[in-house]
Every structure is written in structure tokens, then in C-alpha cells.
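Anyone able to model this chain together with thiamine diphosphate?
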Amino acid sequence: MNNTIANKAADNIRILSVAMVEKAKSGHPGGAMGGADFMNILYSEFLNFNPDDPTWDLRDRFFLDPGHMSPMLYAQLSLLGLFSMEEIKEFRQWQSPTTGHPELDINRGIENTSGPLGVGHTLAVGAAIAERFMVARFGESVAHKTYAFVSDGGIQEEISQGAGRIAGFLGLSNLIMFYDANNIQLSTKVNDVTSEDTEAKYKAWGWNVITINGNDADEIRKALKLANAETEKPTLIIGKTTMGKGLLTKEGNSFENEISTHGQPVSNAGANIENTIKNLGGDPENPFVIFSEVAEYYETVKEQKRQYVKERTAQRDEWGEKHPDLRYLYKKFMNGDLPHLDFSKIEQSENTATRGASGKVLAYLAENVENVVVASADLSNSDKTENFLHKTKAFERGDFSGAFLHAGVSELTMAALMNGMALHGGIIPVCATFFVFSDYMKPVLRLSALMEIPVIYLWTHDSFRVGEDGPTHQPVEHEAQLRLMEQLKNHKGNPSILALRPAGSGETTVAWEMALTNKKTPSCLILTRQNVAEVELHGEKSYYHRALDAQKGAYTVYESHKGEKPELILLANGSEVSTLYEGAKLFAQEHKSLKIRLVSIISSGLFMQQTDEYRKELLPEGVKILAMTAGLPSNLQPFVGLNGKVFGLDHFGYSAPAKVLDDKFGFTAEKACSFIKENFQ
Ligand SMILES: Cc1ncc(C[n+]2csc(CCOP(=O)(O)OP(=O)(O)O)c2C)c(N)n1
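re: yes, here you go
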């Protein structure tokens, strides 16, 4: 094939990339210039998409891992008309869509937010699993490929271990990853920090590995053809590329392969921008141009893609005619619609651990929601996701008819995989582990929050009451981190996450309902290992019905004098609601006429979203508020006022039986009563 136009288009991407960074006076030009050849061949000859509708559901997915290479992606997408030259010129400026690192925007062909290295390609593995899940249910008419672009940083990040292992283990032949191996990273050459044999590493994980010159159009083409023909394994194309390809100095010498071009305008790095742009065939006076022959070429590319879309759509329509039920279901999956569910029908035992109550909900979901996929990081028996697993089966190589992912011990990977599934669409993803290990997942939770995608994080063993396992396993400060994230607004102005710590079996069912119906942000469920005594019913129909008010973030669980203004408010969430209730009962023996209100605050972020009127009605000004938390006192501090008090933990846990710790730390009915006594009045 004549590569004149391919090389011209790649040079066009290089010119735009280098010029964008130069104009913005910040960014990463070197890597983008090296990766341009692969991008152009992929987008023009292999990636299937709808040029008139980037959201087309049957499109191949492309996940960028090194978000710092954003100029390369924007430049590529500008060739397709998804970014205008004006927008390209506004790289990194206020409210420009050409943000420093790409932010999820499917309408513009951006499938994921990227920046933290390693996550992007792991999202791709998740999307590839999602595609297999859909194909297992709807057949080849919904099949497509998933491509990932990874750099040295992504290969080095630990998350790549999980992504590589799982993709190989599951034999994801629908996944094709290009590794831009330019031997340069931010502050050193790659071989200054590693001597690993990357090819051997991926082969050991069960990948098909092809090594090529990543700047050679023919070699890229050949590798992509082989990768597309692979039916057993994911493919890694190791493309040896040239950092800063095309860069020249003032004197006209090569300035390629220089570490300094990784992360600054090339003129600051030591290259000459005018000579470079000229060298690449552009006009230094006016670099923000798509060459006319490249623009023409991309018009023919778009025509070919349209043809493909037409054929696939026709095939799918034919399939839909034959299988109207499946077509209907597919649409529901892709829209994220839930079937009709009646959570009140879920039978809960009383005084159970909230993880157990969650297990009951999961069993119900396994039978009633066909597109929930649950993952556990090797704790399914403890986090009670096994209740779901027992009604389905785990994914395995060649068989994605089940709906469970054994992620192995890799919490961060698991979280990213579930995010990738959410990005793909069609799946309601849930991932579970111990609460203390939520720390291993935070970077991805943060990305879910930024991307505003509805991944459900299920965390059990939520306090020091895991007991004998000791402080390594006892979360203390973890809820506070989530409450802070509830205070942080996403770009739509909503709390960036919804964190729910239910107080009993009824609230656990309601929390699940809230998580499943929350499509705006990720949701987190924080659940106990130990049994929790229910706050008795006082005339309410059931625990579930009483807990429905939890949908306001906080509500009255119990009132000693119904309907009357309280003189003392007790406030908690999770298992401490029960502890405070028991304490309050003891206290009330001596204060029978005292009007006590017990409030459960399942999510402080959600409560803060309620009207002033509701908040003031629930927590009237001037009434003493005493609160209790098994986490840091700061969890509830904002709600008690200067006059109130929070009883919480301000130290790590200790290894001892949970009951002993309850006593030592002050979380028994008697000690809760003393806390109330000491602080009331
Ligand atoms: C998790 C994470 N750690 C650190 C960084 C900061 N960082 C951005 S790029 C980079 C070096 C990456 O080198 P490479 O992936 O080879 O990109 P190239 O130099 O080829 O552009 C680093 C450390 C980051 N973005 N993400």
C-alpha cells in the first residue's frame, strides 16, 4: 500500500500536537508525536465507528491510558471533525473541550477520562468483558473490538498486573492493546528503571504479543490484521516508537528521543518549533491546519465507516426482527433501565449483619435483574456476594453466560474493570471487598466520580468490630474519606459520590434500592460484619417501610414522644444507630418524660441536598444533638453544632474480640448511656 497519505496524516497529527502544546505553553508533545502513526492507521483503517454518531452502540471502543498524550487524541479526532481547529487552539484553556487530560465525552469520541496512568487500559479490559457478556446474551450481532493505547507508565503501574492477568486468563481475544514503547518516561529513560522483558511478561499471562516498529505504517497494519484475526487471546502490539518524532533543532539536527520533550513545549525542551513544523510539512506561521489531502482522505475514510455502519445496522435489524424479545431486552440493558422490582418482597431476617441483609438483596437481584454483574476480590464468602454467585456462575474463558467476576486479590484492578463495564454500557456493575481495602480502590473511585458513572462499591466489615484481625483490618478513617467526597461536587454540581451506611436490614434493602436507582454518580454501600440489633418497630409496617425515609439521607427512626418537638436528638448511622438506641433506652429509664428523637443519617451528602425546611424540621435549632460513630468524629461533627458532641474513634483499632473492643472503646449500651448522661444539659 502507498503510505504517502498515511504518513502525511500522521505528520498532521504531530504538527497539531506540537503546536497545541506550544500555544498552551504546557502539555506533553513528545509521546504524542511518536504515537501518531498508530493512531492514524487505527482510526482510518481498523476502528469501526459511526462518523455521524459517536455514541453508536456497536462501535469499537478506544481507551487511551496515557491521558497526557491528549494532544494526539484531540488531533486525531479533529481529522474526523469531532474537534474544530478553534477548539484545538484552545488546548488546556478555561471551558475548552480540549482539556489537559481527556475527560469522558462520548459525543466527541472520548471513551474515558484518563490521566492516572494504568487505569485507562484496565478500563478497556472491563469494556472487553462487558462486550463478551453482551455477546453471550445477544449473539455476534452486538460484537465489536476494544482497543487500548498504553505507554511505559501504564505498563509500569501495578494495576497493569491485574489487567494483564485477567485479560489473559479470560482469553479476551476481542481486546487489542498498543504499547507505545518509546523507551522514555517523565524523568528518565525506561531502561534506567526496569530491565523486565515485557513481551515475556504478557506471554506468561496468556497474551498474543507482536513486536513492531510502531512508526511504520505497514508494520502497524500487519500487526492490527493479525490481532483482529486472533480468536483465543488478547493481543499486545509492542510498537517501538520514536519520542518526539520529527523534532529538529535550530541548526536542523534531529532532536528525537529526548527525555526533555516528554512534558513541556518543545521550544523549551531544546528543539526548534519552526524547523520542526517545516520538517513535518507544515507552515510554522499557521500550524493549525488540516492538510487538504488529509481532509479529503478522511472524507473517504468516513464514507467507508458509514458503509460499515449501514451493513451492521442492517444485520442487526434483521436479527431484531427475528428476536424481538432480545432486541427489547438489549435496548433496556443499553439504556440502563431497571426491570420492575419490588424491594419490599425481599425477606430479611431480624438483627442480622447488614452484609447478610445485602446478601439477601443480591440473591434477589440475581433472580430479577439480568444485567447486574458482581465482582469480588477473593472475598465472596465474607462480603456475601456469594449469595449472588450461587445463583449464577463466574466468567470463564470462552463462557460469559454467568454474571460474576472472580477478580482475585486485586481491588484496584477490580474497580477499574467495573468502571470499564459501566463505560461500555449494558451492565450494572458491583464490586465488593472489605471496607478497609477501599483504600486500594480510591484512585478509581475518584475517576468514577469524575466520570459520573454508576458503579456500585460494596464494602463490608465496616468498623473495628472485625475484632481479632487487628488494626490492619479495622477501618477507622475510611468513612470520613467518603464523607469528604460527598462534599466534593462533580462538574454537574452534584455530590461526587453517594455513600450509604445503613443501620439495619430494612435500611440495607433501601440502600440497595437507592444505589441501583442512582444513575448520576457512583454509589458506595458500607456494611457490617457483625449482627446489628434492629431498632424495634413502633407501629410501622416493616423495617423496610420505615427505612424508606432514608432516601432523604437522614430521618427519624424512633421518637419517644411521637410528633412532638424533641428535647434531645441522638444521631448516628450504621450499627451505631442501634448502639445509641440501646443506650437511650437505659437513659430514658431515668428520664421518662424527656422527648428523645433518634435520627439515622445514612448519607450526610444526600441529607445536605434536602431542603432547609426538611433539615431544620429533623434537626431543629437549639435542640441538643449527641452523635456516635465508629469512625472519626468528623463524620458527624457538622450536624451537632457547637453545643452538641460526637462520640467516635480517634485512634487505630486493636486486636481483640469485637465484644471486648466494644467495651474498651465505649460502644456498649451502658457506655452509650453514660455518654448521653455526661453530655446532656
Ligand atoms: C499514576 C500516575 N503517576 C504519575 C503520573 C505523572 N506522569 C505523567 S506522564 C509520566 C511518565 C510516563 O511516561 P510514558 O508513559 O512513557 O509517556 P511518554 O514519556 O512516552 O509520553 C508520569 C510519571 C501520572 N499521570 N499518573
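The chain has a mean pLDDT of 97.
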